Amino acid sequence: MSPESGRQCVPFWLRRPLLLVKGFKVDRDDPDLAALSALQPAESFVWGVLPHAARSFAPCILALPSSMALTAALGYLYCRILDTHEDLILDLNERRDAIRNVSYRLKALRDGELSEEPPLATHQCKDPRDEVHALIAHELPRLDPLFIGLGIDVQELIIDLVDDMAEGMLWGADAFEGQEGVLDGDPQVRRYCEAVLGNPIRFAARLFALTERGVGELPHELESACMDVGEYLQLANVTRDIEKDLNRGVAYDIRLKPFLHGRGEGDQEGLVRVVRLELMMRALKRAPSYLTLIEGLDLRRGWMGVSAIIMARFTERYYLGCSNRVGVATPAQDSAAKVIISSWPALVSVKWTRRRLLRLDGQLADLLTKAAEISPQ
After folding, report:
1. Residues near 251 by Cβ (< 8 Å), separated by ≥ 6?
2. For residue 376, is the peptide bond before it cis, meaning its omega torsion is within 30 degrees of 0?
3. How many Å apart are CA 83 and CA 106, to the nearest integer?
4. At what angle do helices 186-193 and 220-240 cross, to 10 degrees?
5. Phi and psi dihedrals of 375, rounded to 5?
6. Exposure letters 60-74 (e unless 16+ CB within 10 A, then b)
7. Who contacts 127 (Cβ-Cβ below 8 Å, separation ≥6)?
8. Looking at 91-206, which runs of residues are DSSP E strands?
9. What share of the chain is helix, strand, coil (3-state, %, to 5)?
10. Is the dihedral of CA 259, 263, 267, 269 positive or negative?
11. CB neighbours of 318 closer than 8 A, spacing ≥ 6?
């Protein structure tokens, strides 16, 4: 590849082990912003910032087949940029413009038009992790040569992803604004989860279908499964950050409205526990759709199976921890390294992959039963 392409010359499959090791060593609480910004070429920047941008997604993306990994990483970073604009730009009009600009830029690049530098957004960062996310957003043009180097069909998949996610985020911005910082009811929470993670899951499934079969469209049942899986995964983020979101003036349950911005009187801790438990139970009811999606994609042995197992195990690992927070006793969690290493049999056996996913389904169903036993409802 030429330097202008932004790609590295060493094949990805040779770099994969080192990138996984580097990802484990990343200190997300003390990032070296100058070193990250200086990474060259663009592909090195992508792999350098990805562990900071994605907790469990980074190793899952690195475990994808070589033909998909960089494209998936690029799509994820565009999603992270949208998410950063949503979370860290306080002015509503500036936030909307910044979110729309990502889509405009990609369409201009697709059409061969030289896109101008995007306006420098005003991100209000509260910690080093926010600062890394703001860095990625400010470095949006660094991704241009990688996007230009993709085939037109893949470019369209990314544009669809960004358009759908941006539309959902703009709806969410209006909903939060009109309801004084909260979402009201299950349908709104569902729509928000579809926008933020349902669309990226759908993108990954469409990318796999396009790579394997040359057609990036999905049947209706898999489209639905993607949205269920997106809700299952996004509710992990929601339940993890309830207290942090309250402090920044956001809640995904209207009962928490009195406690926005650190205000309110009463048993906030007790109410948060109830909301976290209910949202976790809702997520666990969506968990079987993960197996539906994986089986519907007809995965063969190889790296795609490894990635699917890693994602499933990391999500299970999170919900075990969440269960402990709400009072459900669960066994000790495996380390991240053990999760990844123990997923490698998927490289050689489709049957093993299915058995492992079925086992995880059973464990999550048991977890849901235990959670229901302590639910006040």
Report:
1. 181, 182, 183, 242, 245, 257, 259, 260
2. no
3. 17
4. 100
5. -70, 135
6. bbbbbbeebbbbbbb
7. 29
8. none
9. 75, 0, 25
10. positive
11. 56, 236, 240
363-376 residue pLDDT tens = 999 999 999 998 88
Do residues 275 and 352 touch, judged by C-beta distance below 8 A?
no
| pLDDT tens readout for residues 181-223 | 999 999 999 999 999 999 999 999 999 999 998 988 999 999 9
Q: What is the mean pLDDT of the chain?
A: 92
Give Cβ neighbours of residue 225 (< 8 Å, ≥ 6 apart).
289, 290, 292, 293, 296
3-state SS assignment for residue 377? coil
The burial of 332, by beta-carbon neighbours within 10 Å (0-12 exposed, 13-18 middle, 19 or more buried), is given as exposed
Which of the four pLDDT bands, split at 50, 70 and 90, describes residue 121?
A: confident
Give me the residue label for tokens 């009187």: 265
**How far is the C-alpha of 322 from the C-alpha of 333, rounded, in Å?**
11
- 3-state secondary structure at position 185: coil
Considering Cα of 229, then 185, then 179, then 238, what sign does the dihedral take?
negative
H helix or E strand, kind and range, residue 31: none
Q: Is the pTM here over 0.90, yes or no? A: yes
**Domains in the chain, please, with CATH?**
26-151 (no CATH), 179-377 (1.10.600.10)
